[in-house]
Amino acid sequence: MSDPRRQVPRTDALLVEPPIAAAVERIGRSLVKQAVGAAQQRVRDGALDPAKVVDDVLAGLPPSASSLHPVLNATGVLLHTNLGRAPLSAAAVDALSGAAGTSDVELDLATGARGRRGQGAIDALAGAVPDAGAVHVVNNGAAALVLAATALAAGRDIVIARGEMVEIGDGFRIPDLLVSTGARLREVGTTNRVTRNDYSDAIGPDTGFVLKVHPSNFIVTGFTSAVPVGDLRGLGVPVVADIGSGLLAPHPALPDEPDAATTLRRGADLVTASGDKLLGGPQAGLLLGDPELVTRLRRHPLARALRVDKLTLAALEATLRGPATPTAQALAADPAALHRRATALASALSEQDVDAVAVRSAATVGGGGAPGVELPSAAVSLPAGYAAPLRAGDPPVLARIDRGRCLLDLRGLPGSADETLRAAVLAARNA
Q1: How many CA atoms lie within 13 A of 2 on its CB side?
Q2: I want to staple 141 with a disulfide (CB 3.0 to 4.6 A). Which of 14, 88, 264, 274 is the partner?
Q3: pLDDT digits (tens, 9 = 90+) for 205-244
Q4: What is the pLDDT of residues 288-318, one digit of tens each?
């Protein structure tokens, strides 16, 4: 019997095969060589016909050079942190592609001189919130707060209510973040109640600013009191409000969620927020407010370390100037239309002998926004056993388990995804 190793095609010969060479150009030599090596090993093991190696290599290649997978979010959590929060609009995706090469991110094409970095995105943000005298952008919401604390209160006091000393996820806590800047925290009030006098009594010559933090991922009810931003005016120090979720203007579906425009009009000197939550854009930290304060932050040495890249600036500008984002569309979705979609999808699956039923459900904003708010939605209910094979599918589908059933909530998905969902469920059944 001949040695099977003699039948293994050589690596160099496989890499010059036209379809494999094209894959090298598309995703790189390293990933292709991994697939080649795996196919060669199957030939050695006698599990693969040497004549079929090229096809096997192509079948084993990843779709791109990145290990990230596009995932269909059927959880009913619109801004799912584990899924990267807000999905970008088509306009933002196009902007990313356009900015990926060399671009005029910091160049005035008319004069040939250096221009302000990301001027287009800055102008778009300022235009979206006219109440802000000036704006600046850093690389995430926590960075915006860190920059404010460092520039305005390093070695000084930040006055903050005890009930607003929140944890923002994955063990990161606002007080730890603030103390890391060299600021001192002056806690006022109790866990459930704070008054304006508590704040005023804590103000002194070492006070950098008063901080209001929106408890964006929990609610406290019962015997409680808080001090609105407007009531903190006149204390003699800046009022900084971290609204968190990035809502720029009031939204009818979220009447209790703070927004940047209203918060500034009510007296905040500076507002910080995230770009990848309710705004529906890329990860970014937004700083809006008093021109003198924003300039101090923008010119602080730390601002250089926290600045955003050209891709973020391009996507942010397109988000602000472009059509409604997927997040905005999901918030505005008609529950009746969602139920019609769920009914049609469940019916199509039932015709294929899948135990599928259309049910009413409740979606949430998620991502540290609008805690306690339920958004009427609709879902396709499947046996719980579908959850794992759906996650392992192509594309992966992330559902949620509720009362022993696997729910595909449609609030966070456009109607164009329904056929993909149907095919994914049928593939999961056969997995």
Answers
A1: 7
A2: 274
A3: 999 999 999 987 778 888 889 999 999 999 999 999 999 8
A4: 999 999 999 999 999 999 999 999 999 999 9
198, amino acid identity: D
User: With DSSP H G I counted as helix, E B as strand and the rest as coil, what are the percentages for the chain, rounded to 5?
Assistant: 40, 20, 40
| DSSP β-bridge partners for residue 406 | 382, 401
Distance between CA atoms of 398 and 155, rounded to whole angstroms? 46
Bridge partners, 270 (sequence order): 240, 289
Q: Please state which CATH class domain 72-82+329-429 belongs to.
A: alpha beta
Return d(Cα 236, Cα 426) in angstroms, integer: 64
Structure tokens at 350: 């039932």
Determine which helix (DSSP H) or strand (DSSP E) holds 169, and give its type and residue range: strand 167-169
Rounding to the nearest 10 degrees, give the CA dihedral for residues 390, 393, 394, 400.
Answer: 20
The DSSP-derived string for 372-400 is T--EEEEEEEEEGGGHHHHHTSSS-EE-E
Whether residue 52 contacts residue 86, with contact meaning beta carbons closer than 8 Å, is answered with: no
CA dihedral sign, ordered 377, 378, 384, 387:
negative
Residue carrying structure tokens 């409680």: 224
Q: What are the domain boundaries of the chain?
A: 4-59, 72-82+329-429, 89-323
Q: Report the C-alpha gap between 413 and 329 in whole angstroms.
A: 9
Closest CA to 298 of 137, 128, 118: 137
Q: Which of 211, 256, 254, 209 is nearest to 229 (CA)?
A: 211
Which DSSP symbol is given to 267?
Answer: T
Nearest CA among 85, 141, 126, 274 for reference residue 118: 126
Tokens representing 232?
């903190």
Phi-psi domain of 182 (left: phi exceeds 0; alpha: psi -120 through 50; beta: other): left
411 closest CA partner among 366, 369, 372? 366
pTM exceeds 0.90 for this model: yes
d(CA 193, CA 226): 6
| CATH tag, 89-323 | 3.40.640.10
The Cβ of residue 294 has, within 10 Å, a number of other Cβ atoms equal to 21
Are the CB atoms for 272 and 141 separated by under 8 Å?
yes
Exposure string for 244-281, b = 16+ CB within 10 A, e = fewer? bbbbbeeeeebeebbbbbbbbebebbbbbbbbbbbbbb
Cis-peptide, bond into residue 396, ω within 30° of zero:
no
Whether residue 8 contacts residue 40, with contact meaning beta carbons closer than 8 Å, is answered with: yes
The phi, psi pair for 251, rounded to 5°, reads: -125, 130
